[in-house]
Every structure is written in structure tokens, then in C-alpha cells.
From TrEMBL:
GO molecular function list: CCA tRNA nucleotidyltransferase activity; metal ion binding; nucleotide binding; tRNA binding
InterPro entries to which the protein is assigned, alphabetical: Bact_CCA-adding_enz_type3_sf (IPR050264), CCA-adding_enz_C (IPR032810), NT_sf (IPR043519), PolA_pol_head_dom (IPR002646), PolyA_RNA-bd (IPR032828)
Record-listed E.C. numbers: 2.7.7.72
SUPFAM superfamilies: Nucleotidyltransferase, Poly A polymerase C-terminal region-like
Organism: Paenibacillus lycopersici
Keywords on record: Magnesium, Metal-binding, Nucleotide-binding, Nucleotidyltransferase, RNA-binding, Transferase, tRNA processing
Domain CCA-adding enzyme C-terminal: 413-480
Protein name per Swiss-Prot or TrEMBL: CCA tRNA nucleotidyltransferase
Classification via Pfam families: PolyA_pol, PolyA_pol_RNAbd, tRNA_NucTran2_2
Amino acid sequence: MSMSEALTKALPLLYALERRGYETVFVGGCVRDTLLGKPLKDIDIATAALPEQVIAVFPQTIPTGLQHGTVTVVQEKETYEVTTFRTESAYERFRRPAQVEFVTALDEDLRRRDFTINSMAMRSDGAIVDPFGGQDDLRRRRLRCVGDADARLQEDALRIVRAVRFAAAYDLRIAPMTWRAIIRYRERLVHIAMERVGLELDKMIAGSRPNRAAALLASSGMLAWTKERLPAAMLDAAEAYAKAKAVRRHAAIAESPLAVASAGTGAAASAGRRMALIARTMRRLHLITDSEDRWAAVCAALSLRGGQASELFGLLKYSSQRSARLAAIMGLHEAMSLRLLSHTDAADAARDVMIAEETGIDSRTDEPELRAHWRLSVLKHGKPAAAGWLAVVGAIPELAFGTAGIGERVSSAEAKLNRLRESLQTMPACSVKELAVKGKDLLSLAGKPSGPWLGALLQRLLEAAALGRVPNERESLLAEAAALLQTKEREIE
Ligand code: ATP
Ligand code: MG
């Protein structure tokens, strides 16, 4: 097997240990991805040398996880995890092995790994060590546990979620025994830290087939068993998907599970429409580049409000910065989708003509009402959130415009979004920082001490500049500020 540049660069590490008589190999993900011709994420190395022997060989090492046999070796600015061949025993709380035992046989080490595609090694001469048929499984596009699936998933329930992630990322079918074990032991997910589940879900969302991951998560029923309960909307959607799929299987209808779910009237029909929106969102999710924006699309499809979306991120132990950004996109989404959903083109036109008459703005091209609403919402939630929201609804316009008859309306929806995009780009100021006057200018203008009035005044000026009522220029803004201060004083009198 030929080696990529990244593996070749790491070869001196293997040689250094081999020269001292320790069998050493590349292992896991980097071997799998090399066989698939995919770019490598990280390079893991396994060796017969004990951690202290590894530390003795290399000038720069970090004792990352000595009790599990892992030493990080730093070489030419790259880091490599070098782990001593080991077996695991006595799994504790369905996750971490309570004990690891260092061994000298590579096969023993490969046997403890989760799936056959992850249980291959590559020697320094490029030879592949594949005792469990990983290459064959890759060729047949099959994900299979190493050894007895029941035993392996019982040992460590995180593998249940990893199975979905790998099946989706590499477009593999899950082997029947492995799938049965997933269903049988899914309840053990209650023992897995939410943080670990969060990491896996993140990789699924960011991966190339988030739709496939969602379908597998739903049909396995595993989401209902997480340690902390996920939002009801998410669990309901997963359950509805699984039910519809089961119905379809029994009836052998050649329709999508969601078409079955959306049949019926009244409440059932509305639930069906919701499911159709979720399905459409999941199918198009990969079109959104940024994974944070993908999460926002999922939350929007599930109709989670801003607060509920941040709660979900809290459950998954994502950072508060990520939560805040998501909440901002969701806030903007609420403001804009309500506005876009509840107004027909005809009503828009009538209102725009009225505003046009008052302001002299061209109502046909400028949509002044919509643009004002948009720019005020951008001020409230921030420009980054606005860019994120545009990416979301650009890929999935139904999230903002609804599913009804979107087919015919899609070009008008696209045109509207293009105008919003342009309106964002040409916004004279999106934050107080971008205003052509500063707080101290206003202080000297007002000739009174700073107080809450200053922030309020800056905000008023920002709105005026953002809406284009006052040019974002120093003189104009100072004149506007003076006028505002005067009105204020008159109001107080
Ligand atoms: P990626 O880096 O793309 O997520 P990977 O295969 O490198 O994929 P890691 O989580 O980095 O996955 O783990 C490295 C290797 O360690 C895996 O390939 C697998 O052999 C083994 N491994 C990781 N987690 C487990 C687990 N929970 N149970 C058994 N083996 C595991
Ligand atoms: Mg890895």
C-alpha cells in the first residue's frame, strides 16, 4: 500500500522504535482512510514498547494518558499519539476499561478495537495487518464489530453511537448482527457522558451524510436513551420517522417513510407536514457549509425556539459561545420567518406602496418594510447570525417560507433572500462600533455626565444609520443626536 505524505512524514517514528526491537505500526483511522484514499485526520501509532520506553526514545514527548499507555510524541511540529499494545478488561460503567493490560502481540491490540474497518494496522513497509477482515468489509461497504457484537457493545456503549457515525460517514451498511446488538443494548447509552454523545453528534452533523446519520439514529431508537433527556421535539421526530419506516416495511410501499407519515387529515396532516419539513431539511443539510449553521437548520426544522436550542447545546455540553451564536441565529429566524410566512406577496406589495408614498423609496425594487424589519433584526441579533441564517434558508428556503406550494414560489423566495443578502452587505452600520460618532463625541455634545441615556442615544443613531434615514457620517449623526437630545429634553419638561 502506498503511503500519503502525512504517513511518510511519520515513518521516522516507526523506524526509531523498530530499530530498538519494538514492533510498531500505524493503526486505526489513518489506515482505514489511507485504504479509502481519503485525507487523514490524525495519525495513531501502536507499539510493543512500554510508555517509559517510548519516552526514552524521543526528545519531545507529552505523557498524555500513561495509565492507558498513550504518549504524545512531538516531531517537526506534528503530534502523534503512540500507544502501547494493550488489551482491555473489566469495563467499568459500560464505558472506560477499568484495567488495561499491556501486551506484546499486535493482534491482541487490534482485537480490542471497535469495528473491523478500525482494526487494521500498517507496517513501515506499507504491509497491511488485517486479522478481522476490515478490507473486505470496506470493499463490501459494511460496518461490523470485531468479534461478538453483543459483547463488544455491552462493554462500551459509546460504540453504539460510533457505529452510526462511521456508517454515515463512510456510507456503510451496518451488518445485521451489529445492528441487532445496537437495538438490544441501546438502553446502555444512559451510562455514557453527554459530552461523548455530543462529540459524536457533532461529527455526524458536520460529516458528509448527516441525513443518513439522522435516519440511523431515528430507526435505532437510541436517542431516547441518552443520560440526559433530549428535547421532546427531537425524540418525537425520531419516533415518527421510525414508525413510518416500520409501516412502510410491513406494507412494502415504495414511498418514502415520510410520505406515509404525512397522509391523513387535521392533526395528523399537520404532524405530517412538520415531518416533511424535517425530512427535507435533513436531506439538504449537507448543502450548508458551516456545521454550526447546520445545527441551526436542524433546530429550526424541529421548531425549537432560541432558548430551547441553547438548552439542547447545554445538554450536549457545547461551549457557551456556540450556544450564544445558535440562539442569535434562532432569534433572527423567529423574527424573519414569522414575517416571511405571515405575509403574502400581495399584502407585502400593498404595505410597501403605502410606505413608498410616505418616504419616496421605490416600493417595487426596495421592499422597504421587509428591509427595515430585516435590518432592525440584524441589529438585534448581530451580523454573524444574519450571515448564518442566510446560509440556512438559502439552502432550505422552506424553513422560512413554509412548505406549501414552495415549488412555484421558490424563485420569488430566492429573489427575496438575494435582496436581504444585498441589504446586509450594504448596511451602513451593523453595530455601535461601526458608527461614525463615538460616545465621547456625544458626551461633549450633550455637556452632561455619562449615564444610561448615552447607550440609548447611540442605539437610536445606529438604527437611523442602519435604516439609511441618516447617513453614517459624523456631521449628520451629530445633527441627529442634537435633535434627539432636544426632543428628549422637551419630553422631560
Ligand atoms: P476519526 O479520527 O475519524 O474520528 P478514528 O477511527 O481515528 O476516526 P478515534 O476515535 O480517533 O477514531 O479512535 C482511534 C482508534 O481507536 C479507532 O480507529 C479504533 O480502532 C479505536 N477506538 C476508538 N474508540 C474506541 C472505542 N470506543 N472502542 C473500541 N475501539 C475504539
Ligand atoms: Mg482518529
